[in-house]
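Hey, quick one: can you model this chain's 3D structure?
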Amino acid sequence: MNWMMTTFSAELLGTLILILLGDGVVANVLLSKSKGQNSGWIVITAGWAFAVTMGVYVTGWVSGAHLNPAVTISMVVVGNLPLSSAFSYIAGQFIGGCIGAFLVFLSYKSHWGVTDNPDFKLSVFCTMPAIRKAKHNIMTEIIGTAMLLMGILGISDTHNGLSAGVGPIAVGILIFAIGLSLGGPTGYAINPVRDLAPRIMHAILPIPGKRNSDWSYAWIPIVGPIFGGVIGALIYKLFCRSFWM
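Sure thing. Here's the predicted structure for all 245 residues.
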């Protein structure tokens, strides 16, 4: 392995790609005078699915491309990753998320000032609930992230016989399915860093006409995915693997 490509740098680069392309597609759909303005939810969910696929292809061979603290923590809980490695994964994810969000800001520099809706500007960076009810919002994130971890563990299970080349595509399909089926209530963060790192960048970047960064909601896309990921990983380990153990 090249000395520069460590788990830290792989998770940084992979999460950068995830946020650049994921937040980028939201900007394309929501910001005024963008070529993709008003192209809709299908474009957003497809863009996020492709973003995950590209992040996994680029760095999966080094770190497994968690790109998500909920995945990393869940892998520690089920014994697939040593606790000592978790910090380098999560640190890389957070820094990569911040850089990716900054690159989206630069890419759409001309569009922030001509977009009147401050909620759209915030939504480029982080999630907002369609109906703000904390107990329902966190349940949605728990269910969505549980499905994410069950899917990831199923895809990576050698009993499925998927080659490494097909795996990232399958993960992209999984993200697409979660977005289409479960993304409506909260915007499907299913990833603490995907929400927190860009939210911090929204708070500090000089975005014209922006609103507050909605910190009262920010705990939900952090806590929900962590709990949901662990639940999904445990379900897979306790039930699905029992069929062949």
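One thing worth noting: The radius of gyration is 17 Å.
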